[in-house]
Fold:
Amino acid sequence: MFEGITKSLSSALSSITKAGKLTEANIRESMRLVRQALLEADVNYDVAQDFMARVTDQAVGEKVLKSLRPDEQIVGIVHQELINLMGPVDHSLHLKRDGITTIMMCGLQGSGKTTTCGKLAKMLKAEGFKPMLVAADLQRPAAIEQLKVIGEQIDVDVYSEPKDKSTPVKVCQNAKKAAIKAGDIRVLILDTAGRLHVDDELMDELERIDARLMPDQALLVCDAMTGQDAVNSAKAFNDALELDGVILTKLDGDTRGGAALSVKAVTGVPIKFIGVGEQLDRLEEFHPDRMAGRILGAGDIATLLETAQREFDEEEMRLQEEKMREGKFSLEDFRKQMRQIKRLGPLQNVMKMIPGMGGIADANPDMDPEEDMRRIEGIINSMTSWERDNPDRIDRSRRNRIAIGSGNEPADVNKLLKDFRMMADMMTGMAGMSIKDRMKKVQELTQSGAMDPNAQLRREKQRSKRGPQDRTRLRQKQKQKKKEARKQRKKNRR
Structure:
């Protein structure tokens, strides 16, 4: 997400740090690079100009130039102005305490509107509100059938009528009568028709629905990957309907970020939610502060924690916590943890949400964490249950058998066992920590270089420069550490 603008902004802001003594001249040059990064990200021209004027006025001020760390001050100014640009946001749909809340969903064809209706219904259902989906898109072929399939998947009622015997306005009106008759429907979600582009016919239809149904919320679904086209369509829809909010879809595939950075400034309408995947549970609240952190490469721990708390199996985590406390963390437990981590989404995206890890991913473009995890799981799957519970007892013949069974080399099995011993010690040390504290620990390890694949190579180069006495002392320390680790493992087994 936003890889292009993140890389460009990081490069522009790092030029400030490398400049040595900061002057108004080199700050203005860095601001020029920031402006260029925004325009390359397809941010609206006027929005980019206004943003840069505000940032530059603050960055070249006497307060910044005379501060102890002016480079950090400038990054802080850019971060805050990004938040101001995209916010503030009210995530509430202002659902009624009594009666039915009507939400009209609109957007162009291909924006993911029908799928987003399902995502919104699933989210509301999880919050305790019973929704009903309304198939008011009589324009697109198979739109009604698609909504019915989604309704079955999330176990939500779908109201529909034959398209050749009704009109969108009648469908919506009859759906509301059916919802009132049902007695327990709290939210009516209208899936209206779209077009390939904004036209008078589309707007007339939406205005008629708006006038007859008087929806409590009008939400526009926009495809983030269309950049300024999404912003222009948002402006056209808002002029006709007075939107209450925008839902940006396909944000996980948007490398530029122009739509996210421009929509609020151009239309005055906040982005309430974002779609970050095709699955029906991939709808998140939009937080400008978290998004600003992602854009500046600072990660997004808060969203990652929320996802982990939602996706992880609490009972399984409790059992693993007990094992970690007792020093009995096994390869079977490790395999279960990997399967839980997969539920967080693509691992490259997960890494970029942890401060510091995004830089490692960018510095190692050939790294494929998904493939690495599949290979590791394949090796563990080739072990017997006894071997998974007793990795220290796996001898050479067992390693060879496991390697053949998983299609790997014995060296790969050796590496996994070695890495697991280190990780098991780390996990034991994290026993009792909350998920948030564990994330912080991972961040510390990342910043120290302990999780950087290239860090080992750098350490090896440093060792080669040491003298004989230095290398002897280092070997003695390593032997002592291994000895202490063996003692601890024996103690844990008792």
